[in-house]
């Protein structure tokens, strides 16, 4: 029975190591999850902003094309 205290110490040490390792794994998993969510939110925001800018650019281009077409029609009318 003289080995019982040593066995208890080793068991306690292993238990503490297991609990500490589990806590670290949970912390890392949570950090990765939160970081992934933040990156996804940033990506979504960037995509939405890009879509808004693209739509605006397309509207501007359509107006410029229509204005150029109207100008060419006026010039054609003046030459005739």
Question: What does this entry look like structurally?
Answer:
With 80 residues, the protein is mainly alpha-helical. It has one helix and no strands. It has one helix at residues 4-79. The longest helix is centred in the middle third of the chain and has 76 residues, at 4-79. The mean pLDDT is 94.
Terminal residue distance: 117 Å
* SSE class: mainly alpha
Rg to the nearest angstrom?
34 Å
The coarse overall form would be: rod-shaped
Average residue-wise pLDDT? 94
Biggest sheet character: none
Strand content: under 5%
Poorly predicted regions are none
Give the strand tally. 0
Helix/strand order: H
| Residue share in helix | over 70%
Number of helices: 1
Oligomer: single chain
Features:
80 residues, mainly alpha, 1 helix
Topology:
Blueprint: H1 4-79
What is shown here, in short?
The chain has 80 residues and is an all-alpha fold.
């Amino acid at each position: 029975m003289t080995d019982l205290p040593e066995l208890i110490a080793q068991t306690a040490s292993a238990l503490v190591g297991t609990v500490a390792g589990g806590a670290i794994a949970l912390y890392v998993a949570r950090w990765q999850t939160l970081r992934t969510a933040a990156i996804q939110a940033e990506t979504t925001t960037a995509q939405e902003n890009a879509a808004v800018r693209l739509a605006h650019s397309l509207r501007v281009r359509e107006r410029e094309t229509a204005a150029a077409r109207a100008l060419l029609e006026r010039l054609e009318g003046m030459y005739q």
